[in-house]
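Exercise 7. Predict the structure of CBS domain-containing protein from Papiliotrema laurentii.
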Amino acid sequence: MASHQSSSPIPISPAPTTVNRASSLSRPPRRASHSMAGTPGSSLARRPSRATHPPVAPLRPLSHDEALEALRGFLKERSSYDVFPVSFRLIVLDTQLKVKKALDVMLLYGVVSAPLWNTATAKFAGMFTVSDVIHLIQYYYHTSSWEGAAADVEQIRLQSIRDIEKTLSVPPPPLLSVHPLRPLYDACRFLIRTHARRLPLIDKDTQTNSEVVISVLTQYRVLKFIAMNCRDITQYLTGSVKDLGIGTYVSEEKPEGNTNPFYPIATAGLETTVFDVVHQFSEQGISAVPIVDENGKVLNLYETVDVITLVRNGAYQSLDLNIAQALKQRSPDFPGVVTCSPKDSLSAIFSLIRIRRVHRLVVVAGQDDPQPGRLVGVISLSDIMRALIGHEIPIGGSGVGAEVVDRALREEAAEDGVFASSQSTE
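Solution. The predicted structure, encoded as tokens:
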């Protein structure tokens, strides 16, 4: 494995011979008396975890499809709460908190999203994510001076962001959530079908019947959980990512008049302005853009999280900088760009997830290609999860409300008994 401290691409390397397999499944069962601080009335305080042991190693080699079925069975036997360790930190932001303070907290604790809590109603109020920051940037870029924007962000509160998004004609984000004891497989299907990157786990206080935010389930946390506990199964996922159709790849077929040489992948060059990239984030609903040279070789990656620092520091004028200048302001602990080749197996990707944090992989041409390092595709965590759970027709989008999703899940329940409600505890 190459150094993680440079901004150069980091290729996938073979899995190490020794891997720390410690996880929430390899420790003793959670005590029935275990309760998170601040959730004394939660039903989780008296309910033991479901299964607490890794799956039994297969007695014979598995085919790729058999390995997938084994992983799905594993997810069906675990609850969403099983993914989390006994002790973990949860950052919850009050809707009355000022945006500047919220960004300070997120950067301090190294998170890019946090649940929102409405103290007046004592209810979960959605999520504050990088997408909200992007919308804030777009609004002030077009409607205010740099000085005015900086002054406003010092005073604007989180609850006001929804009004700004209405001005931009951005659909209201759905209030999606599931109960912590719902099967993990159900939660994964929910993530896929609603295009959500994260899913809050909401319980009910048994004494007051008020909502309790337990944690937030993310795609990375689920995939890490699988990688750490199912190594004996993931080793049989031998199909290549390209052959399996995992990811988005550069296509020779493009709409008439489209001049993007990497269609349908959004890219940028070192001379592209930060705001142009921010616009791509918002318009295409993506969280990162590969930075390429004139020959299509991947040089770097610009991510939505890079924008948070600009807003926090009030450096709105930095949006007019080009990417080359903006990258110089990036934190020195940036882990680098994670790359793979189209021939790498899904097993190799799980080996990588097992040993380091991965949010996406940039697919580049291998050394046997006439143009090694050339951009070939992008693989998101959603792509990997969809390959595991199955390709299903999505029932929602960015503007789907919780009621719509809940109704769709109830309709599906009538067919296969999988979902009862987006808030069901059974």
